[in-house]
Amino acid sequence: xxxxxxxxxxxxxxxxxxxxxxxxxxxxxxxxxxxxxxxxxxxxxxxxxxxxxxxxxxxxxxxxxxxxxxxxxxxxxxxxxxxxxxxxxxxxxxxxxxxxxxxxxxxxxxxxxxxxxxxxxxxxxxxxxxxxxxxxxxxxxxxxxxxxxxxxxxxxxxxxxxxxxxxxxxxxxxxxxxxxxxxxxxxxxxxxxxxxxxxxxxxxxxxxxxxxxxxxxxxxxxxxxxxxxxxxxxxxxxxxxxxxxxxxxxx
Length: 251
What we know:
Elements: H1 2-13, H2 17-38, E1 46-50, E2 53-57, H3 64-77, E3 88-92, H4 96-102, E4 111-114, E5 119-122, E6 124-126, E7 131-133, E8 142-144, H5 145-162, H6 164-169, H7 172-184, H8 190-200, H9 206-223, H10 228-233, H11 238-247
Helix pairs in contact: 3-5, 5-7, 7-9, 8-9, 9-11
């Protein structure tokens, strides 16, 4: 790693004409790409706004779009950190190549959230069916579109609440768990949680991890009556909360 950084530093410090030209070209390309992340509207022909959510798409919207955004808004409204004065820009790529262009590091995910720029991209979806799809041929897992939109918007609400640095350094299980809790917007079922942990307690993988985060944060909010700020400040670990759920008696 030290040698790589040394070579990169040397590359940008060299004085030759060719190196300077290369520096300008690379810098120009990065600047253009950054500009497109900040303002990608050029690629999306259609847009619609519902309250403080602006939805962009390469395809025309149908009559189900307003219903979708209404459901997202309703899910967000239960969050104590929801801020209706903040506008959220959501981009439906519906084209895996276009999505990969905007989210190369998250190309196999449902979506990508650029918190500093207020730009949220989704790989592919069906608004009428309320389904979101991954850009991954090896994973055909489908989620509700309103849930994943709510999840990603909640990430931005966390950033607005605690700041970009704190949001990025927060324990992942708290961050993702809170977004999942708001996204699902369901009553906490401790029986379901205990059954899940009995089967998947020692199982790894993103899908299982996210579900564990959801059960943990939902438990803290609905059973322990903790606020978002309390969860952020607590020293609790994910394993500690899950262990407490397992030990909780069912009445």
